[in-house]
Amino acid sequence: YRDGRECVFGNTWKSKGIPTGEITNLVIENDTSLWMATGEGEVVHVSGNLEMPDDLRGKSYKLPVNLPLCFFIDRVGRIWVGTEGGGLCLYNARTDCFESVHHRYNLPGDMVGSIEEDGFGNLWLGTNCGLARLTVTGEKKGRVRTFSVADGLPDNFFNPRASYSKDGNLYFGCSRGVVMFDPAAIEETAVNLMPRITDIQVDGLS
């Protein structure tokens, strides 16, 4: 604590549901609670008055795939978890559980190791198959654009928990260095495609 006090979650905390083993990632929610990823593959929500450790309590959550890699709380308070094998998961406050939304949004690969948010409210996801931009609000909600080596990236695999946001720029670490860019500078190119029938087949015969 800022006043010099300290609190260590030792074995005596197990009865309160607070993890005492390996913690692989954590995030603070509104300075009132902690979300932790454990080495056993669970997500634990520690709530209570963080200034009074004796009041803290923990609750464990299972994920669709129990390999949490990273947390992210967006500007409207949604809690996202990137996983290994299950991709992107979202906390559903109504059902009090985490749900996989990876296939719902047709995101690439099956791993999300890092998450950042740009000034437009889009989520940028470092995956094992490129860097994905997910629109989660507005008329374009659910739209995904994936950037890969074909777009100039040095690699398609982005390392877990290797991202940062500062002054509007986003930074993502991959196996071949760091990718830094300004999301506002990425131009969208509209392409008008006209459908055209070139052939009709019935049972494989024209």
How does this structure look, described?
The chain has strands at 23-29, 33-38, 43-47, 57-61, 68-73, 79-83, 87-92, 97-100, 112-117, 123-127, 130-134, 144-147, 158-166, 169-174, 177-181. By secondary structure, the protein is mainly β. A hairpin with a 4-residue loop joins strand 2 (33-38) and strand 3.
Question: TL;DR?
Answer:
The protein has no helices and 15 strands. It is mostly beta strands and 206 residues long. The strands form four sheets. Strands 1-2-3-4 form a four-stranded antiparallel sheet, with no helix packed on it.
Note the main attributes of this structure:
4-stranded antiparallel sheet; 206 residues; mainly beta
Taking Cα atoms only, what radius of gyration do you get, to the nearest Å? 21 Å
- How many beta strands in the DSSP annotation? 15
Judging from the principal axes of the Cα atoms, what is the shape?
elongated
The CA-CA distance between the termini, in Å, is 75 Å
Can you summarize the main beta sheet?
Answer: 4 strands, antiparallel
Contiguous uncertain segments of 5+ residues: none
**Which whole number gives the mean pLDDT?**
90
Helix content: under 10%
Strand content: 35-45%
SS field, number of helical segments: 0
**SSE string:** EEEEEEEEEEEEEEE
The spatial strand order of the largest sheet comes to 1-2-3-4
Give the helix/strand class: mainly beta
